[in-house]
Amino acid sequence: MEEQKPQETERSREATLLLKTDMNCRLMVNNDNHGALQKNTPLRIALPLGSHLINVITQDGLLEKEWTQDLNNEEQIVYLIQLAEEYAQLQAKREEEVGKPLGIECWSVDQIQQEQMTAATEVGLAKVFRDGPDTPEMVVIPAGSYRRGEAFNKYKVTITRPFAIGKYPVTVAEWKCYVEKGEISYSPSDNDWEGDNLPVTNVSWFDAQNYASWLSTQTGQTYRLLSEAEWEYACRAGSVTEYYWGDEIGDNNCNCQDSGSEWSRKRASPVGSFPPNIFGLHDMLGNIWEWLEDIWHDNYEGAPTDGKPWSSGGNQLGRVMRGGSWSSFPRYARCAHRHGSVPTIRNFNFGLRLARTLP
Description:
By secondary structure, the chain is an alpha+beta fold. Helix content is 18%, strand content 27%. The chain contains five helices and 18 strands. The chain has helices spanning 84-98, 109-122, 172-182, 205-219, 228-236; strands at residues 14-21, 25-29, 32-37, 43-48, 50-58, 64-71, 76-81, 128-129, 138-141, 144-148, 155-159, 163-166, 223-225, 289-296, 315-322, 339-341, 350-351, 354-357. A hairpin with a 5-residue loop joins strand 5 and strand 6. The longest helix has 15 residues, at 84-98.
């Protein structure tokens, strides 16, 4: 009878890989996530003998390295992952590119307004139009590219098709018409501010969606909430500064804290109380937070680059809001600032502005 050979133990088929890195990164081994790899903190991993696919990615995703590591015998292999020098070069290149104007940011005021006229003419509309006496006044926005986000983390977005956006936030008067003609039971509180020309407040994300749906049925057009990318594109109107009028809050440019407005920290202001941006839009910053279509994500990693709403992943219980309000500090009323809330909440700072899809 042939003598049985003892089976090799699991450990006898393993080698040890000792990884060191010169900057923090994320580690993947054979497409499995092994978490964070810290600078100057070696990580020891036991792996079966054979070939293994190793990936390391910097925390911001700017630099990724991949290699196949062969482990042929039971010993420890030390591998030094050098990222810092190449990362610094890529970072410098990105900062140089971000500093350059892009797309609409290169256009003059006259060019921007001419592009608006052209986009409107191509779909048979005026630059500013209404679909009916009780519908919001809309402004045509041309397609174009811009850099979205904070100064330290901008990325390119291309709005691929023209669209229309409310010249103002939806008003109390426009919502009253919806209550009367739409036969709905919910009439939001006006907070005792009184005035049909105030932005409607105390509406949830779902209330806003229902209003857009009703308006679409009434007009035969497609009304909807803006995507977050559309909102920032429309808000900036070609500007690259913190606010669409400059880098400082200034005096009487909008309604938020420390803005010099007579309504600051007191209440919402009548729509159109402040100068518009280059597109002709009023109250994009300050006055009321505006609900958007997108699901809330903590950052832009994986965000669409074509202007569409981000409707997957993220925090399914949150929706994006933009613009700041009459009670916000100036840093929250900037073009790039993001805010999120639960879509069922109704609040005296929360309102909406609609988009309309163009043919």
